[in-house]
Every structure is written in C-alpha cells, then in structure tokens.
Amino acid sequence: MKDYLVKALAFDDQIRAFAVSSTHLVEEARRRHGCWPTAAAALGRTLTVGAMMGSQLKGDEKITIRINGNGPIGSIIVDADSKGCVRGYASNPEVHFQYDSGKLNVGMAVGTDGQLSVTKDLGLKDYFTGQVPLQTGEIGDDFTYYYAVSEQVPSAVGVGVLVEPDNSVRAAGGFILQVMPGATEETLTKLETALSTIKPVSTMIDEGYTPEKMLEAIFGEEVRILEHQEVRFECNCSKERFESGIMSLGNDEIQAMIDEDNGAEAVCYFCMERHHFTAEELEKLKTK
Q1: Buried b / exposed e across 238-265, counting CB within 10 Å, b at 16+?
Q2: Do residue 192 and residue 281 come from a single domain?
Q3: How many helices and strands in the chain, by DSSP H and E?
Q4: Do 74 and 125 reside in the same domain of the chain?
C-alpha cells in the first residue's frame, strides 16, 4: 500500500490534525543512503515531519528543514513540497546508538548543541526562516518546541520509525496536532489525556494502523477527515541542473576535469543518483 497522509479536524474543529504513514518513503531514503539503524530513524522521523509540513503549503511552495545538533550524524537536511514529494539526507548515515533496552538512541546521534530551522520558499523574493535551539534531538519533541516558539502554534508532534535487524525500515509514520484559536480548556485536557494513553507511533503503524485509524486512536469518533494525499521520496535533480553547476566552475576547472579524468561524475546528495559527463560533453559546457 502506498504511503499517504490525511488532514483532519477534531474535537468540534478545535484541533487541526495531520497523520501519515511513511514506511516506503523512509525505506527508500534508507536504501539510497545506506543508513545504519539510528541514522535511519533520525532521518526517517525528519522526512515524516517534512511530509506533513509540506502538505500545509500551497501551489509551488517548498520548505527546507535543517537539523544540526553537533552530534555524530552531522546535519539532517529535508526538502518537501505541497505535492507530497519529499527528499533528504544525513551527513553521516553510518551512525548507530541504542539504549540498554534496545531502543534506538536518536538523541545521542543527533545531539542537542545546535539548531532546528525551517525555511519556507513561498515563491516570493525573500525566504522565511524560523529557527530554535534543539531540545532533545529526538525530533518529535524538537518540532513540538519549534511550533510553539517559532510559529506560536501550540502543537503535539509524534513520529516513529521501526528498523529491522537487517537495517530495513519496518514501519514509519507520525502525526501533528495543532490547537486552533479559541480552543477550550476542556478540549486541551481531553487532548492531553488522549496523548498520554496512545501507543507509540511506530507500534501503531507496525500493527497496521492507517493514518485515519491513528487519529481515531487519539480522538475517538470526534475526528473529521478532510483530505488524503499520497507522499513519496522524490528528487528533482537532473543532469541539466548539474550542467549549470559545472558551467559555473569556469573553463579552467572544466578543462582540468577533461585533462585529469577524461570526464566527470556528479552525485546528488539528496538521492545519491550519479550523473556522468564525457569529455565531449564537458567540452560543450565551456563558455565561449
């Protein structure tokens, strides 16, 4: 079954909710980057949030998430758009830490000595960036803090990734719940109670919960599904884009590629696709 997300309203439309199943999306990223288990969980959680944040955009708007807590994994970069396309990578995908219980220690991999930033490209001249200090490095808690401080929207963000012993992703998904203006204290209490009793996100996905069922586990029958959207790992890199980058290097650098390597190979950080250029192709990229 394809990954998808739902948008919904709950508790008399006082809560806005997003929920997503992202197992295939996260597994595709893990496979492309060769992530070890904890790196797969950290990148996967960020990709999952990115998919839900992207769904809040319109038209050709895009967001870029950057997380760097100065931990062993380095930076995590995720791009997402309004159409359900998500891509991302971690600087060091070969990272694995776990607690004595066996649970993956994402916080240790990510670190907390750094920032989480979200840059929104709304198709205007300027970009809009919100930035907050990392709190736990566990991703979900950090985005909860981001929404409260940077966007001033009280929210609850839950994400989870379950990784198999062979490093493949068994289950991934998440939710974002946002308190609408005018929500009552009774609604907030109901929400807190519900969140304290639900199963972990990765467990729900592993047990076959759909995004709808995940929200039903939180809100019961007091949830109204508004929209469905497919999500997937998709990169917009192309050989043509790399041609522009090579041309910007200048004729001397291009000639060096021809003389020393008789060609060139460009690798996309986001999807790891390799684009090859022959000496003849490089010669055509030199400016007259």
Answers
A1: eeeebbeebeeeeeeebeebbeeeeebe
A2: no
A3: 10, 13
A4: yes
- Mean pLDDT, the chain, whole residue set: 94
CA 274 to chain centre: 22
Whole-angstrom distance, CA of residue 271 vs CA of residue 131: 25
Q: How many angstroms separate the CA atoms of 248 and 12, rounded?
A: 55
The mean per-residue pLDDT over the stretch 95-117 comes to 94
pLDDT of residue 27: 98
CATH number at residue 243: 3.90.1280.10
Tokens of residue 70, six digits? 């100065």
The closest alpha carbon to 73, from 119, 30, 111, belongs to 111
Distance CA 278, CA 288 (A): 19
Tokens representing 265? 């190979």
Same domain, yes or no: 152 and 281? no
3-class secondary structure per residue, 76-142 = EEEEEECCCEEEEEECCCCCCCECCCCCECHHHHHCCCCEEEEEEECCCCCCEEEEEECCCCCCHHH
Give the strands of the sheet with 62-68, arranged side by side: 128-133, 115-121, 62-68, 75-81, 85-90, 232-233
Same domain, 89 and 118: yes
Quote the domain boundaries for residue 259. Answer: 239-285
Same domain, 253 and 123: no
Q: Which residues contact 76 (CB under 8 A, 6 or more apart)?
A: 42, 43, 46, 65, 66, 67, 68, 88, 89, 90, 91, 110
Domain count, the chain: 2
Provide the 8-state DSSP code for 286: S
What is the per-residue pLDDT across 29-56, written as a single tens digit (0 to 9) for each? Answer: 999 999 999 999 999 999 999 999 999 9
